[in-house]
Design goal:
The structure is a single chain. It is built from 14 helices and no strands. By secondary structure, it is mainly alpha-helical.
Length: about 300
């Protein structure tokens, strides 16, 4: 259980620092937005470029992907279907909720938990690659399209190509290109990219922590039903779907089945909050789901490790 405890402790510590910084006001009133944009537009694309440049695309066709990708897609679709029927939300808000219901914290939580609980960091690779290559670009395409559609005088060509010019998608594309061609960037280029990429996670966590200062109690407003729907799907629905798909569709057993279930039970990633705040679409929902799913996923992860391990 050390991996679960250590991973969550690191998250909470950095978020707490962000909350203190926001409370003291040392960085000014607009600092949280600046940090979010720094992470979204600069650091995260660099991190994804490095991640995908060293990745093995073969993991995208592994049996584990049936459980991880399948459960993520089904969880997102369930949220979209229920929220559209119940609250008649527009596409951009549905997209944020769908991402919050399915986009797991595979980076700064998935890797340590995979190492300590599963014994191998490679177990998190399928869901990590699926998210950055498929889930994030699709979600960002809808969010970017909603922003572009509101701009008066925007041409249809600019609206269609906006997702391709999103920094995260550009970073993914460059990383995939490097992996496919086998090209290795020289140290003179890699060193500054590594330095910038190292900002992605702490900047997102600090911005998230600052956003919590002065915020109302999570899931206390008019959108509480949407928040709890996303939290329920993320903490219970997605791992249950992953287990079912992994066991009875992909035929996984033992550690393989445990890996699929545990990685799908990881809480909502801070990326979703960064994406939502960057386009100002469902920011409060994303913030609350990240917080609640992070807290509630601890007993779920421990229980899964004990039951299936």
């Amino acid at each position: 259980m050390n991996g679960v405890v250590e991973g969550f402790a690191a998250l909470v510590a950095v978020i707490a620092v962000g909350w203190v910084v926001g409370r003291v006001g040392i960085l000014g009133p607009g600092a949280a937005g600046v940090l979010s944009r720094l992470s979204f537009y600069v650091a995260t694309p660099a991190l994804l470029l490095l991640t995908l440049a060293d990745a093995d695309p073969a993991v995208l066709v592994s049996a584990a992907l049936v459980g991880t990708a399948g459960s993520a897609v089904l969880s997102a679709l369930l949220y979209v279907g229920v929220a559209r029927w119940r609250w008649r939300l527009p596409a951009a808000e549905l997209t944020t909720g769908g991402l919050a219901s399915s986009y797991v914290n595979a980076g700064n939580l998935g890797v340590p938990i995979s190492v300590y609980v599963l014994g191998d960091a490679s177990f998190v690779a399928p869901v990590l690659l699926f998210q950055v290559l498929v889930l994030a670009p699709v979600g960002l395409a809808v969010l970017a399209g909603s922003r572009t559609a509101e701009d008066a005088g925007t041409s249809h060509w600019r609206m269609l190509t906006q997702p391709l010019r999103t920094p995260v998608v550009v970073g993914c594309g460059l990383g995939v290109l490097l992996a496919a061609t086998g090209v290795t960037l020289p140290p003179l280029v890699l060193e500054p990219v590594h330095l910038v990429a190292a900002l992605a996670v702490p900047a997102a966590l600090l911005a998230y922590g600052m956003s919590l200062h002065g915020a109302p109690r999570p899931a206390s407003g008019e959108g509480s039903g949407q928040v709890w729907l996303a939290v329920a799907l993320k903490t219970v629905g997605q791992p249950a779907l992953a287990f079912a798909l992994g066991r009875w569709v992909a035929g996984l057993e033992g550690v393989g089945l445990l890996a699929v279930t545990v990685t799908s039970a990881l809480p909502t990633a801070q990326n979703v909050f960064v994406y939502a705040s960057s386009y100002d679409r469902g920011t409060l929902l994303a913030r609350d789901v990240v917080l609640l799913s992070t807290v509630l996923s601890v007993p779920v992860l421990v229980g899964l490790a004990l039951l299936l391990g």
